[in-house]
Write a structure and sequence with these properties.
mainly alpha; about 250 residues
Length: about 250
């Protein structure tokens, strides 16, 4: 009986992990189709209803080629400077954020790497509220389309898995296109086209460099700092993006 349990318990655990992995979103259809509503949109609608507050969703899909080059460049420099280089996860940025001190070529067979990983996890637990996570554009797209604002480790792992799947199935241009169309730019404002029309009264294809920088600066805190609410809070972020654009 005991021997059977020794075999059955690990098998059951492995089966549960496999089922969980398989049950996460497989975004292959995003090659050809746009989702009608993202998980983030649905979440904001539920939050507004619970608070008994009105919320109009503004969203208009635009092809990447119709979006301003200024905007594309500003967004990448602001959110994910290594977007074209990574595979959905910027391991270099994560190592910096979590104070990981192991080798770049991680191995569970290397005691030093394992100790460094444990140290990084301890740092995260002790500084959870301060750790940003350095999410890539691909990770943010995964969160916007499929998840919520939950910052638990389990949700973060799910986001990492789906981000890798996005990179498997979609081109970088398609990932950027979807991100720019589903990113949140303000209360009920989703996508660059809706944001450009609301804040600047023009299409996202015609944004100036300064307007593109302003939208890029909105992304970290779109509900509390955007071109219509506390725009002064965006200035330090806009200065940072300007510097990156001059140096790129």
């Amino acid at each position: 009986m005991f021997r059977r349990l020794l075999i059955a318990v690990p098998l059951a655990f492995a089966g549960a992990l496999l089922f969980w992995w398989l049950s996460l979103p497989w975004p292959i259809l995003l090659r050809w189709h746009e989702p009608g509503r993202s998980a983030f949109m649905s979440m904001r609608i539920r939050q507004a209803r619970a608070a008994e507050q009105p919320l109009d969703i503004r969203h208009e899909f635009m092809a990447l080629t119709d979006l301003s080059r200024n905007l594309r460049r500003a967004i990448i420099l602001a959110e994910d400077g290594r977007f074209e280089e990574h595979d959905g996860i910027d391991w270099v940025a994560l190592a910096e954020e979590f104070h990981y001190r192991g080798d770049d070529d991680f191995s569970f067979l290397d005691a030093h790497d394992v100790a460094a990983l444990v140290g990084a996890l301890r740092y995260y637990i002790a500084n959870r509220d301060e750790v940003r996570g350095r999410s890539t554009i691909t990770q943010q797209l995964a969160k916007n389309l499929y998840f919520r604002t939950d910052r638990s480790i389990a949700r973060k792992v799910e986001e990492l898995i789906v981000a890798r799947r996005l990179e498997w199935f979609l081109s970088k241009d398609r990932i950027l296109e979807l991100y720019l169309n589903f990113a949140e730019f303000g209360p009920g404002v989703f996508g660059a086209e809706a944001a450009a029309r609301l804040y600047f009264g023009k299409s996202a294809k015609n944004l100036t460099v300064e307007q593109a920088i302003t939208l890029a600066a909105t992304l970290p805190q779109p509900l509390t700092a955007n071109p219509k609410k506390r725009p002064g809070r965006l200035e330090w972020r806009k200065d940072l993006i300007r510097q990156r654009m001059r140096g790129s």
